[in-house]
């Protein structure tokens, strides 16, 4: 039971995560005495995704993990027996019980390589019965991983190297493992971090996140914090009542911004204070629960300045609605004047994070020259790949017993190229591809 | 370790399959003394998917399974500690270790109900800290399940009640669990069966499948079957060499169809014989590996008629390329004349199954009056929901301590409606919705 010992075991595919016809064909091969015939399959795609000119090959690590652990358990064999004819020779099931991938050889493009149509991502050779059974799980593991990595790489190319890209699409993913796969392979494709804690725990993806609107709306301002006192960052000196200090700073901030001191929402302020008490070194303000200009921004500045007095530096603000580019510009302007007004230079460059259904077009807008956006959170557009939600990989038999095989079909584009392939990239004397 | 004892445990979400900000907010609530405040969240969508007028609520069973098993293991708490400030009060982690959902109440639309925008699919109430932590996994479990069920129901409405619909999209699914979820909830939405064996084993979905082109191309015709003999269906009488009988029938079939006896591919015929030897009671012919008219169809008829002599009835044919509607019509015509010619009435009504990137438009064409298609296999279009690959469910705080909460934001459509909801469907005196 290798899977149980593997801390990632639960995330991997299982042998029965396959199409029933793989099992019926297995019986067919076995009955024909061909279970051990040496066969080779190639896994490839026919067109680059998203109308683009490349893909990234990904999922190899998951495939290797799956192949290493591949064993049919008793319960699996029993289930297959229930789905096959009742008079099936028991020796077939003994054959299944003994199966593993020790006779299977996989040649593959390295994880994260550029991949092109028709060039095999995987070449899988071994006993016909086993390599046939592997078709569906290998397709499932490679196809979506490669799609996500490619999608993430496209988004990274659009964003340029300097924006911080955060994947935050778990809630919109196609099933729990869809979320884990998306977080893992968007990181491979060029994202900086993910909101998905499990991807951090199981795959080592850096995780990030601060607070949501529900945290803000959960506070009315009438709550009494059990301990509003905060010690200075340096550890020395007396504790300060952060809430009281924030109220004092709020008056100065509202004066500077030309706002009435009653305008900023007191519940939002209480939420910011509560968050700052828990995360004094990592305070981020979510600005748009009520009104960015009249509430979120002054409340953030009051808390950030109160923390600054104690030696803490706020780490950012976040916007999740409205015109993100324009608001970021206005917020940066306010940060600059406040930095000068209150003598706090770092306030000028507080990172501005944005999110809200960002797709390739909106990302290009947010990444344009002069944009004041620093961090971009992308959910649905990266994890579900709405422009093309499947890569359409195929797994085709190219030879048996060293003899090439092909299919013709009624669609010319579905014909296969027989025989085992070797792909070369030709470089000219100047080192460029030709 | 409830999950390990649960045979479906590995398929369920885990507590750390969540966004990091749920954990940072948990610390914020705890630090503010609000972990136990009674809160209520509502899970709903804002627009029906696919431009339609309804959705089906689904995923409740997965949610209940997740909530029942919800416990943070030591390794989970340790990972969270590594992602939170190093000076976090250890008492917070003790609080996490003791968490479960015993104080959480869920009201929900029954699995498979009609659901409409703004009407809660789930209403989750309980201690603020816990119900906040549940946001991401519940969204992940409900959103895709409901999307798939809705998509499947739309496809079923297009197909009408008589076509058999088979989900076969595992290889194109967004991750292994995306495939399992898709198979489970497309069955809920009105499909008849799935190709996904794991969905059969874990969820009781009927599974179906026969053979792929690789099985056909793996045979050249020069293979020598170790045992070509088949006993009659009734069990009495002497065994027959099936391959030899097929060769005899092929001559008669080719004569009837006006084909040369060399035209049908001998490798394809060997594959059909091999499959028929393993599945004499469930022989299906995949017709389009080389040429439907000149090879697949005569080879199928030869094998089906040889089996018929032994008392077996073939269960169908399958097409995976070309104009499916037109070919089904032609094949049905051949079946009718062959049934008359060879005196085998059941041959007229052999089920014709089709597949090949079938979407809503192609399905409508295949389901039109006079169509000779009986079984329709759908993959990518049902599992990835390419018209809209996410439902966009949200989970919003509506009250804390009995007090209603709302957010305003910079986008009017993202405002929430405060307070706990009750939804009614009004029926007129004629029993119709008003």
TrEMBL record, chains A, B:
Transiently phosphorylated on a His residue during the reaction cycle. Phosphorylation strongly increases the affinity for substrates and increases the rate of nicotinate D-ribonucleotide production. Dephosphorylation regenerates the low-affinity form of the enzyme, leading to product release. Pfam families: NAPRTase_N (PF17767). One of its GO terms (biological process) is NAD+ biosynthetic process via the salvage pathway. It comes from the Eukaryota. It catalyses: 5-phospho-alpha-D-ribose 1-diphosphate + nicotinate + ATP + H2O = nicotinate beta-D-ribonucleotide + ADP + phosphate + diphosphate. Pathway: Cofactor biosynthesis; NAD(+) biosynthesis; nicotinate D-ribonucleotide from nicotinate: step 1/1. NCBIfam families: NAPRTase_put. This is Nicotinate phosphoribosyltransferase.
């Amino acid at each position: 039971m290798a899977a149980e010992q593997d801390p990632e075991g639960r995330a991997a595919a299982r042998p029965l995560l396959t199409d029933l016809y793989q099992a019926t064909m297995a019986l067919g091969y076995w009955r024909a005495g061909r279970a051990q015939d040496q066969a080779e399959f190639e896994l490839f795609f026919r067109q680059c995704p998203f109308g683009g000119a490349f893909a990234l090959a990904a999922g190899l690590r998951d495939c290797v993990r799956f192949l290493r652990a591949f064993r049919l358990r008793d319960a699996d064999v029993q289930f297959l027996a229930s789905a096959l004819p009742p008079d099936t020779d028991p020796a077939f099931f003994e054959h299944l019980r003994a199966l593993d991938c020790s006779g299977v050889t996989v040649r593959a493009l390295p994880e994260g390589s550029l991949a092109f149509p028709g060039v095999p991502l995987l070449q899988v050779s071994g006993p016909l019965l086993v390599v046939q059974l592997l078709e569906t799980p290998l397709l499932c593991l490679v196809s979506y991983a490669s799609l996500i990595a490619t999608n993430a790489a496209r988004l990274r190319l659009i964003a340029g190297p300097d924006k911080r890209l955060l994947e935050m699409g778990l809630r919109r993913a196609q099933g729990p493992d869809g979320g884990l796969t998306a977080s893992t392979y968007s990181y491979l494709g060029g994202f900086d971090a993910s909101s998905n804690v499990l991807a951090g725990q199981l795959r080592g993806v850096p995780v990030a996140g601060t607070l949501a609107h529900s945290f803000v709306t959960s506070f009315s301002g009438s709550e009494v914090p059990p301990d509003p006192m905060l010690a200075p960052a340096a550890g020395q000196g007396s504790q300060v009542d952060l809430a009281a200090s924030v109220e004092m700073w709020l008056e100065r901030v509202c004066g500077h911004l030309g706002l009435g001191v009653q305008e900023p929402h007191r519940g939002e302020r209480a939420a910011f204070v509560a968050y700052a008490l828990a995360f004094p070194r990592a305070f981020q303000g979510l600005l748009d629960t009520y009104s960015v200009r009249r509430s979120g921004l002054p409340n953030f500045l009051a808390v950030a300045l109160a923390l600054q007095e104690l030696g803490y530096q706020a780490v950012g603000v976040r916007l999740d609605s409205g015109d993100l580019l324009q608001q970021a510009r206005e917020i940066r302007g306010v940060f600059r004047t406040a930095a000068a007004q209150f003598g706090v230079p770092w306030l000028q460059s507080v990172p501005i994070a944005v999110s809200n259904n960002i797709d390739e077009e909106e990302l290009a807008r947010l990444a344009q020259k002069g944009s004041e956006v620093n961090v971009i959170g992308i959910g649905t557009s990266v994890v579900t790949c709405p422009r093309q939600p499947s890569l359409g990989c195929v797994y085709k038999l190219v030879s048996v017993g060293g003899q090439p095989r092909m299919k013709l079909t009624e669609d010319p584009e579905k014909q296969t190229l027989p025989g085992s392939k070797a792909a070369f990239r030709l470089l000219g004397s100047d080192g460029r591809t030709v």
